[in-house]
Design brief:
With 450 residues, the chain is of the alpha+beta class. The protein contains 16 helices and ten strands. It is 54% helix and 10% strand. The N terminus and C terminus are likely disordered.
Length: 450
């Protein structure tokens, strides 16, 4: 049993007019956006829908060129509102036939029942080709659509909604200036200001009116899809298995809540989620365990909102060094974030929260990302458990120390080590994962019924 303790006095230095305060607010607004469906197939659908919009008519053919990480994350996940189809071809067809590009990551949210049959018909009756992108970019989607002599290409790079280039018949209609650059934060607020001490300062200083909308929406949306995951039959039903096999204590409920949200989302549930670092699984992992602990502790709404925002920012901070997509499972970062948020709910100060993060990182770093699919929910459960256990360890005067593997002195230094491991050290791991995943069919695009 963990003994609650009062937090030490915080040195609240940040003011609403400070640049860092404004940057942190903007980072939350940029990251905490709604998405319907797994974000990689949705990005494909968005590119295809935008290309069709610019073309002005239903195209006779479509070619999707995608980076390996996009192929990996789209191959095995159900695209929402497609009657259970999977793969890049299904996502592109859905975007072309019935997508609304103006809704970006909710591009497929308003598809009518009558449109779903048309998606399969389009795949059957039109040329829809998927090819690996001819570049080394981690995040790259190019949708090229044709009708007669007209041809339109839309390119998305670096993150899910970043349209870098639009051409028509070889003529540039739009170019963001980011094309080909490796800095995936282009167009977003500079994340170099993130560090654990300033994050905690911001969390204590932030006015509720400044975060209530974005955090409130995250809580509402993600709670709703988690409830759906526990109610009906989705994916591998990891959330239900946890509650059935492991009991109903708060630690199990926290794991089950996050896993159930992933169960539903990977299974094609049409409810939206609020994402973090481009991922709905990370958005749910960062928020749902914290919400469950807040209920258990009868925390105030103010405390809950600050704890969720803390978890979000800790997740974003870790993912900044790792990148949007990699061989490193993003749920690990979000599980560490959840552990930090839970420690905060218990009154943890800087030392408690910093050690919680380091302990959690030491436990689960190295879990691979082999694409979006039902097993993501099980990885989420493990990551949340590590975050919670990282806090339990420190409360029992135990911690991992400098020199224990990738752990080094200082929480920020350890986070930077993880970024280097994931972004640089695991590049070849990522290539091998993609090669293994595509070995069976040899095709990056699949349109199949689940």
């Amino acid at each position: 049993m963990i003994e609650k303790h009062a937090a030490e006095e915080w040195d609240i230095l940040m003011q609403p007019d400070d640049k860092v305060y404004k940057n942190y607010l903007q980072i939350l607004k940029e990251e905490l956006v709604p998405a319907t469906g797994c974000t990689e197939p949705i990005a494909v659908a968005y590119a295809a829908a935008k290309a069709r919009e610019v073309l002005g008519t239903l195209p006779e053919s479509c070619v999707i060129a995608a980076s390996g990480n996009i192929i990996k994350n789209v191959k095995s996940v159900i695209v929402p509102n497609t009657n259970g189809m999977k793969g890049i071809a299904a996502a592109a067809a859905a975007g072309i036939v019935a997508g609304d590009a103006s809704q970006k990551l909710e591009v497929l949210s308003d598809i009518r029942e009558a449109d779903k049959a048309q998606i399969q018909s389009y795949i059957n009756e039109h040329e829809l080709i998927v090819v690996p992108a001819d570049n080394d970019m981690v995040f790259y989607i190019a949708a090229t659509v044709k009708y007669g002599n007209e041809e339109v290409t839309v390119v998305i790079e670096h993150f899910h909604t970043n349209i870098a280039l639009i051409t028509r018949n070889g003529i540039k209609l739009y170019e963001s200036g980011a094309s080909g650059k490796v800095n995936e934060s282009h167009g977003l607020t500079d994340r170099s200001c993130l560090n654990i001490r300033d994050i905690l300062d911001f969390i204590q200083s932030v006015r509720m009116e400044d975060i209530s909308e974005v955090i409130g929406r995250q809580i509402d949306y993600n709670t709703a899809i988690s409830a759906e995951g526990l109610k009906d039959n989705w994916g591998a039903n990891i959330g239900k298995v946890l509650l059935s096999a492991c009991g109903n204590d708060v630690r199990t409920r926290a794991r089950a809540a996050a896993a159930a949200g992933s169960d539903a989302r990977m299974g094609g549930c049409e409810k939206p989620v609020v994402i973090v670092s481009g991922s709905g699984n990370q958005g749910m992992t960062a928020s749902l365990p914290v919400i469950e602990y807040a209920k258990e502790l009868h925390a105030s709404q103010d405390k809950l909102y600050r704890a969720v925002a803390l978890s979000d920012l800790v997740t974003i901070y870790q993912k900044t060094g790792i990148g949007r997509l990699s061989a490193y499972c993003g749920a690990v970062s979000a599980g560490c974030g959840a552990g930090a948020g839970i420690a905060y709910l218990y009154g943890g100060d800087y030392d408690v929260i910093a050690h919680t993060i380091v302990n959690a990182v030491a436990i689960t770093s190295g879990i691979i990302c082999d694409g979006a699919k039902p097993s993501c929910a099980a990885k989420i459960s493990a990551a949340v458990d590590a975050g919670i256990f990282g806090y339990y360890m420190y409360e029992h005067n135990q911690q991992f120390l400098d020199g224990d593997g990738i752990v080094t002195k200082g929480v920020d230094n350890t986070i930077h080590n993880v970024g280097a491991l994931a972004q640089k050290g695991m590049r070849q791991t990522d290539r091998e994962i993609i090669r293994i995943m595509l070995r069976k069919t040899g095709k990056p695009g699949i349109a199949a019924k689940d």
